[in-house]
Specification:
The protein is of the alpha+beta class and about 375 residues long. It has helices spanning about 1-25, 90-105, 125-135, 230-245, 285, 295-300, and strands at about 30-35, 35-40, 55-60, 110-115, 140-155, 160-170, 175-180, 200-205, 210-220, 250-255, 290, 325-330, 335-340, 355-360.
Length: about 375
């Protein structure tokens, strides 16, 4: 009896130590937290937005600067991709390429996803800081928020630290920013702490006549059969945008939504459909708010120019689906929209989406 009791005590101590170690190496963010805003003007304070002005916005998942010369383990539905990390040379090259495209387009606001910081497979570098060095003259204000972070992930493909964040760069002044955590999969008790914790990064740009423009940056989770997490993430996003709308706050929301537009599921080859549901959860947003690309854009004769995803899958020879969007308040007027394709196909497995808008006038 005494021996059994000793074994039980030892087992309990080991369990407590294991739980403590698990907690220590994983990340436990608050569900709602203020994020630092950094503005580094060289000559003058960043300008304020003016009601009625034109505004150019770009969203781009830069795929941690990995590029297109790989088939990573997660690029195949069965996890069979042979590659686990890009080379330092490819990371450096794609960093310069991202900076080149951003400098050429010169959008007023840039929304980036899959920006690494402290990740083993990208040499622990802060990719946003490296990009800022190349575009700081254009974007004095930035904010960022992690959505995947851990000191150690025991997955054999990773076996080290991870760090991935959303980043927003602005030509105009940012007053404040906040991270709003989105619903997460239930998951296994052991696996759950190591999973990404998807979020909305909300930035507030002051308007000259008072009030703010809210800019929401996000990267929603991947589809899992029998799991409603994506639907809950879309619902949470919709609730926030509806709150802005009811409060009279103009807004723009962009990012990688990991969801197809209307009718695109049927056009994918059968082997490419496993990552998506036949009915896209994105309808909860497009039924309420305008988006770029619109469902009309992606279903017309020129639908191929609106594809934003070029998977690192050897069975796919070019962009073949749309996963990245800019949603915007109906109080804004769409002037133009495009997917920059010609010179971005090899930089990332996503293409940048660009929209031009007119902000509401002073009388609105």
């Amino acid at each position: 009896m005494q021996r059994s009791l000793r074994y039980l005590i030892v087992l309990m101590v080991l369990m407590v130590l294991t739980a403590g170690l698990l907690y220590d190496i994983t990340w436990h963010p608050a569900r709602h937290e203020r994020m630092p805003v950094i503005c580094n003007p060289k000559d003058a304070a960043p300008p304020l937005l003016v009601p009625g002005q034109a505004l150019k916005v770009m969203t781009w998942n830069i795929q941690h600067l990995a590029g297109k010369r790989y088939v990573f383990w997660y690029d195949m539905a069965d996890g069979s991709g042979p590659d686990e990390r890009p080379t330092p040379e490819d990371i450096a090259y794609n960093l310069d390429e991202v900076a080149r495209v951003v400098r050429d387009e010169q959008p007023d606001i840039v929304l980036l996803q899959e920006v690494d910081d402290g990740a083993k497979h990208t040499d622990y570098t802060n990719q946003l800081a490296l990009l800022q060095e190349r575009v700081t003259d254009l974007y004095p204000c930035t904010t960022e928020a992690f959505y995947w972070k851990a000191d150690f992930v025991p997955d054999p493909h990773i076996y080290g630290s991870v760090g991935t964040k959303l980043a927003t760069l602005s030509r105009y002044r940012l007053d404040k920013a906040e991270r709003l955590q989105l619903p997460s999969p239930e998951g296994h008790l052991i696996d759950r702490p190591f999973e990404p914790k998807r979020a909305l990064l909300v930035s507030y740009l002051p308007l000259r006549d008072g009030g703010h423009l809210a800019v929401v940056n996000t990267h929603l989770g991947a589809f899992r059969p029998g799991d409603d997490t994506l639907q809950r993430q879309v619902a949470a996003t919709s609730q926030l945008l509806t709150t802005f709308e009811r409060g009279g706050t103009p807004w723009i929301s962009g990012g990688d939504f990991n969801l197809l537009p209307k009718g695109q599921y049927e056009h994918l080859p059968a082997e490419q459909r496993a990552r998506y549901a036949p009915e896209s959860a994105l309808h909860a947003l497009w039924e309420k708010f305008p988006m770029i690309p619109s469902n009309e854009d992606v279903s017309g004769e020129e639908r191929r120019k609106w594809y934003t995803r070029f998977p690192n899958d050897p069975r796919v020879s070019g962009p073949d689906r749309t996963l990245d969007y800019l949603f915007y308040s109906p109080t804004l007027q769409r002037v133009d929209g495009q997917v920059r394709r010609e010179d971005t196909l090899l930089i990332s497995d996503h293409l940048p989406v660009i929209g031009r808008f007119l902000l509401p006038g002073a009388a609105q």
